[in-house]
């Protein structure tokens, strides 16, 4: 199974190499937004790019460490990072444990990155200087989630929650601490070689039925694909089309609900997560003991 995962990673990588990643500036603030963003490095352990809304009090209540997907960089999730943070007490910390190396599925680099950056949050994020113990949510996109799930037993402190965006490659032999709530976004059909039975559905399956959420995007016509969570998709092989423009706003809203729920004690109810995209039939929703 590990060999299969690496083969899929290489195929995704080859498609991404044919396309230049978005080049973004270190500071995305402009006259019409209060989002503060900056890119930085952790010596020997990776890169990060944080996003927070400077108009929000107590903005560092929650920090979401968002791991980049295969061959992606911290500059490829600007829309999502801004959307998560806008108007909310959440810092989105887009993270890369192996910058320059397209492979993100190994657990070792994520253990080192996480265990380092959680001790430096107050030093690297100005909004967090006076927040000594923020809620920590960990997770990511694509194959980085494989490394994160395998890294979980060695993460200190344990994250308060997990958020996975089209994760891969997840199997039913993997373990998630049943005390940790999870939020998962995936698809109804296989997309970009990310097979549905080893993706968000599987991550939901190994999560505790006491506090888990799964959204499955209706991609029957294949116009919305695995890389919809990035700014520009992953080339023509896994593109980002206008039909999926609703996805990042919906994901951002669900993350805000999830973070607020953890602050309030971690209880999850289906009513909380019934977004308009669920009512409109664009995504299916499963919560706690429900099965896809």
Characterization of this structure:
The protein has 292 residues and is α/β, with parallel strands linked by helices. It has a single domain, classed as 3-Layer(aba) Sandwich (Rossmann fold), CATH 3.40.50. It has 8 helices and 9 strands. A 9-stranded mixed beta sheet has the order 1-2-4-3-5-6-7-8-9, sandwiched between helices. Strand 1 and strand 2 form a beta hairpin. It is globular and about 45 Å long. Mean pLDDT is 90; it is low at 7-31.
Strand order of the largest sheet: 1-2-4-3-5-6-7-8-9
CATH level-4 homologous superfamily: Alpha/Beta hydrolase fold, catalytic domain
Shape: globular
Stretches where pLDDT is under 50 for at least 5 consecutive residues are: 7-31
Beta-strand residue percentage: 15-25%
Number of strands: 9
Number of domains: 1
Mean pLDDT: 90
Q: Class in CATH? A: Alpha Beta
Q: In brief, what are we looking at here?
A:
It contains eight helices and nine strands.
Task: Write a concise keyword list for the protein shown above.
292 residues; alpha/beta; Rossmann fold; 9-stranded mixed sheet; 20% strand
Describe the SSE topology.
Elements: H1 2-17, E1 35-42, E2 46-53, E3 62-67, H2 78-85, E4 90-96, H3 107-117, H4 121-124, E5 135-141, H5 144-151, E6 161-165, E7 182-187, H6 200-205, E8 212-217, H7 247-263, H8 276-279, E9 283-287
Parallel strand pairs: 3-4, 3-5, 5-6, 6-7, 7-8
Antiparallel strand pairs: 1-2, 2-4, 8-9
């Amino acid at each position: 199974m590990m060999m299969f995962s690496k083969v899929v990673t290489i195929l995704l990588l080859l498609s991404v190499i044919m396309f230049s990643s978005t080049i973004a500036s270190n500071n995305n603030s402009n006259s019409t937004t209060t989002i503060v963003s900056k890119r930085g490095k952790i010596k020997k352990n990776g890169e990060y790019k944080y996003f927070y809304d400077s108009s929000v009090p107590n903005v560092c209540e929650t920090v979401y460490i968002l791991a980049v997907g295969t061959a992606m960089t911290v500059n490829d999730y600007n829309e999502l990072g801004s959307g998560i943070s806008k108007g909310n007490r959440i810092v989105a910390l887009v993270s890369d444990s192996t910058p320059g190396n397209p492979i993100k599925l190994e657990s070792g680099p994520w253990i080192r990155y996480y265990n380092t950056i959680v001790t430096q949050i107050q030093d690297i994020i100005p909004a967090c200087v006076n927040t000594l113990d923020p809620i920590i949510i960990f997770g990511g996109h694509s194959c980085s989630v494989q490394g994160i799930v395998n890294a979980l037993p060695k993460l200190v402190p344990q994250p308060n929650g997990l958020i996975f965006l089209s994760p891969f490659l997840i199997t039913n032999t993997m373990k998630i601490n049943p005390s940790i709530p999870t939020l998962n976004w995936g698809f109804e059909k296989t997309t970009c070689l990310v097979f549905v039975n080893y993706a968000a559905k599987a991550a939901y399956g190994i999560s505790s039925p006491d506090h888990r959420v799964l959204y499955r995007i209706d991609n029957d016509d294949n116009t919305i694909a695995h890389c919809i969570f990035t700014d520009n998709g992953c080339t023509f092989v896994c593109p980002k089309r206008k039909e999926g423009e609703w996805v990042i706003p919906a994901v951002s809203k669900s993350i805000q609900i999830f973070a607020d729920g953890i602050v309030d004690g971690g209880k999850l109810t289906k009513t909380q997560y019934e977004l308009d995209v669920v009512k409109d039939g664009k995504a299916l929703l499963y919560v706690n003991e429900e099965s896809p």
